[in-house]
Amino acid sequence: MVSRIDASAVSRYAVPLKRWSVAGLGGSLLAVSASYFVVGGELLSAEFVRFAIPVALSLFVVALGVWLRTGEFSAEFVGVVFLWSLAGGVVMGLLAGWVSLLQSVEGRRMLQPASVVLTKVAVGTLGGGLLGVYHGRLRRRTEQLAEQRNRLDEFASIVSHDLRNPMNVAQGHLELARETGERRHFEAVERAHDRMERLIEEVLALSRRGETVADPSPVSLRVVAEEAWGTVETPEMDLRVETDRRIVSDARRLRALFENLFRNAAEHGGETVVVGASEDGFFVADDGPGIPAEDRELVFEGGYSTCPEGTGFGLAIVRRIAEAHDWRIHVGEGDEGGARFDFRGVASE
């Protein structure tokens, strides 16, 4: 019988290993360097003097790895630093081999002392790790600046277009209300103000949901979904939660994710919303008209909406929350023919 590997189990063990990779590399160098202290079961002071430098450098690599593990760094970031450290050590090791080859060509002894080789490898490993940290932080800062620029573009679009439209509607109906005194014009002004208020609230939420989740904790999908359902106006709609799974998440942001998905389902019609568990995450599905295949990538763009009463920012907020958790989103068709949002790569308790 061919055993099948559980992908979620592999992922669960791979992340901690990746986080400790740099510390493990430093520990390996430390073990090799320390092994030269003891020859024939006796501690030799001469060996201690020669190998003190590679041992010290190896300890610095271990300290770097522990700092990366205990700090607020993702497993991917630590993995990149590990590759830089490994590359630095390999380059310096090759350099030591090249020097030995040149010595042999000149008729001298081919091998360099082990202490010299280990010192070069440790210098390369530590130097590569520090360069990896610098490169990773610089790249992350560049991505943050690009994200901030994109948000500013979104906000400029909202101010120049999305907020101006209901404002113009309110001003036009206010003039008509002054002239005619008819109630319908006052109601139109009220609806325009409600839309502007909702736009402002969702833009503020959009600006705050893109941050990385620093301290997630186990939460119940059922509890958070039912709490979110109680805060959204869903007339004549039912919620069906088909899972008791607990996932690792920020409860406040998970609730905002559910609220926006429920509101989206209510705006587009339908009678039932289902929350359930999948192999490596969870899903939210409805029995409304669904989302055409050609629009399934566009729905997460800020300001995109097929509903006249929608703001177009609800699903953009959902995307930001998922990205903050390092989740992947897939939009497809539900069992009832409506829209289904699958969230994958979700850690369970």
Automatic annotation (TrEMBL):
* Keyword terms of this UniProt record: Kinase, Membrane, Phosphoprotein, Transferase, Transmembrane, Transmembrane helix, Two-component regulatory system
What range(s) does the Histidine kinase domain occupy?
A: 158-349
Task: Note the SUPFAM superfamilies from the entry.
Answer: ATPase domain of HSP90 chaperone/DNA topoisomerase II/histidine kinase (SSF55874), Homodimeric domain of signal transducing histidine kinase (SSF47384)
Q: Which CDD domains match?
A: HATPase, HisKA
Give the catalysed reaction(s), semicolon-separated: ATP + protein L-histidine = ADP + protein N-phospho-L-histidine
According to the record, the segments passing through the membrane are 20-39, 51-68, 80-101, 113-134
* Enzyme nomenclature, EC number: 2.7.13.3
* A GO term, aspect molecular function: phosphorelay sensor kinase activity
Protein name in UniProt:
histidine kinase
Species? Halorussus gelatinilyticus
Q: What is the lineage of its organism?
A: Archaea, Methanobacteriati, Methanobacteriota, Stenosarchaea group, Halobacteria
